[in-house]
Automatic annotation (TrEMBL):
DUF4166 domain residues: 16-186
The organism's place on the tree of life at top rank: Bacteria
Designated name of the protein: DUF4166 domain-containing protein
Length: 193
């Protein structure tokens, strides 16, 4: 079976290095590594509010131990992120992906709020371009303006070697500039399919 990323990329899937193919392969797998999380301090109240809705992580840090468990159930891919800070505090950030047609995916952070993204390959890097934020009300997907959220999303992922990859996620607001970033390095282990 093809993963959601294989479906979205089509023939470009074959251009991805082995580490990125392992990360997105159909089935159940775990990414283990570390992340840096940065955002301006003045956004703490907003990020804490968004956290109540299941979005993002509302604590900064460097080289934070992170485990991402991915599992496919039906037509959804579930992402369960466990972020463990040096002081022992643990933050969970869970979401699920669905196909959005036309080479796009939507990542929902709760049953209503999602980010529609268009992945593409340039060189050996995987890029995502944020298309729009959406609110799902029954069968309807209502667009939410980027300026009302934290801005435009971009992601770049690249292989470090045959088993490890680096990722860089950024949110850039049209008025405030870069307002959120998390970046890190991970290794994927398959747990079967």
């Amino acid at each position: 079976m093809k993963s959601l990323m294989q479906q979205a990329l089509g023939a470009d899937w074959e251009k991805l290095p082995p580490a990125l193919q392992a990360h997105y392969r159909f089935g159940t797998n775990t990414d283990s590594g570390h992340m840096d999380i940065h955002y301006p301090g003045y956004l703490q109240p907003l990020l804490s509010t968004l956290r109540l809705l299941g979005a993002l992580v509302n604590r900064r840090g460097s080289r934070i131990d992170t485990v991402v468990e991915k599992e496919v159930v039906g037509e959804r891919q579930y992402w369960r992120r466990t972020v463990t800070y040096p002081d022992g505090r643990v933050i969970r950030f869970d979401s699920f992906w669905v196909a959005a047609g036309a080479g796009e995916v939507i990542e929902f952070v709760n049953p209503v709020l999602g980010l529609q993204m268009a992945p593409y390959v340039r060189g050996e890097r995987l890029h995502y371009r944020g298309v729009r934020y959406v609110a799902r009300l029954g069968p309807l997907l209502l667009p939410i303006p980027e300026w009302l959220m934290l801005g435009h999303a971009t992601i770049v992922e690249e292989a470090v070697d045959d088993t490890r990859f680096a990722m860089d996620f950024r949110l850039t607001h049209p008025l405030l500039g870069e307002v959120f970033r998390y970046a890190g390095e991970f290794e994927t282990a398959s747990r079967g399919s």
